[in-house]
Amino acid sequence: MCTSFVVIRSIPDDDAPVRLQSDAILRGLHDRDGFLSSLISPDSPVPIPVDSCVLVHFSDEPACTRARLLAETRTDLTIACLGSDIYDFNKYVRLHDFVDLYIMPTDLHRRVLAVQVYKPVFAVPESIDPITGWRSSTRFEFPVKSSQRLLWFGYPESFLKSMLSLLPILEDNLSKGTVTSFSLITGMELRNYSIGVPIIPYSNSTFWSAATGFDYCILSHFPLDLSLNSYIKSPNKLVTALMAGLIPIASDTPNYRILLEEFGLSRFLFDSPAALNQILDNLDPENDSRAISRSGIIEAIQERFSDSGVAAAMVQVVQDFTDRRKRGEQLDGKFGSPRTLDTIPSQTYFRHHLADFFPS
Predict the structure, then answer these.
(1) Cα separations (Å) of 33 from 37, 83, 89, 314, 359?
(2) pTM exceeds cut of 0.85
């Protein structure tokens, strides 16, 4: 069994994939007896222990370069790629020659990537984001809310892709008084669009204190950009909202539904502007708060998505990878690397040949 895990990383510590994936694994392994874990930079001279599992983020170019060199000289190492968004299969296929396995944040991400690559793909959940202020040494109890202050948080581009078209619904509920206020926690560049909504500047260090001034959080990941990646987003924002003490109002997209439906909270899902309007028209903060507290979702989140829970999942994945019965039938190396759509030569039509005879 692999008992040594080494993260090679050059991307900043405050990046979301770092907070939710590699740092969570390192923190969780630190508390497990019999396991070694370490973080090194791509140019570090520190030797990597024999039979280690080396972890790199798929978007970290220097770290991937170092991992490729290690794979050429160290057959004892297991190289694992930590993935997240799937905007472009090429970002994963380019690592195919040296990666032994891919790690994705949800089973839906796992299934999407698995149809493209020839290597094993596993799922390890993202952790509770430290920006919530929660620490594994404490037990969080969901607060009872008493007003209808509504928040949206995230990247500016996410607001434009998945939330902007819903603003008229929110504005109408503000005018009716069913929502008392609506604000955003996001990057200040969103001010350039003159959307008419108060903006609180986003910061990892101040998110929790800012979020405590609200009662509900709207979580929209509708694929209004027609992107599969938008549709399959992980439940991280839902977990963050709940652990920040916010009642979620979430788009009915797969990973939000899986978590909320498991605990009987599907009433907080909306699948259309009309459904969102109905939810906002019937907000009951005290009863909604108690429904979350009684459901068991907070306790489950603290167990599954804690650092120790994520680290345990990672250890299990590596064990399953070494067990041929559990990792399933795999292709041997004779197939090389898979071809992606944009590597296939474009089709040549007859009109293109005519252009050779009749140049303009």
Answers:
(1) 11, 27, 37, 15, 73
(2) yes
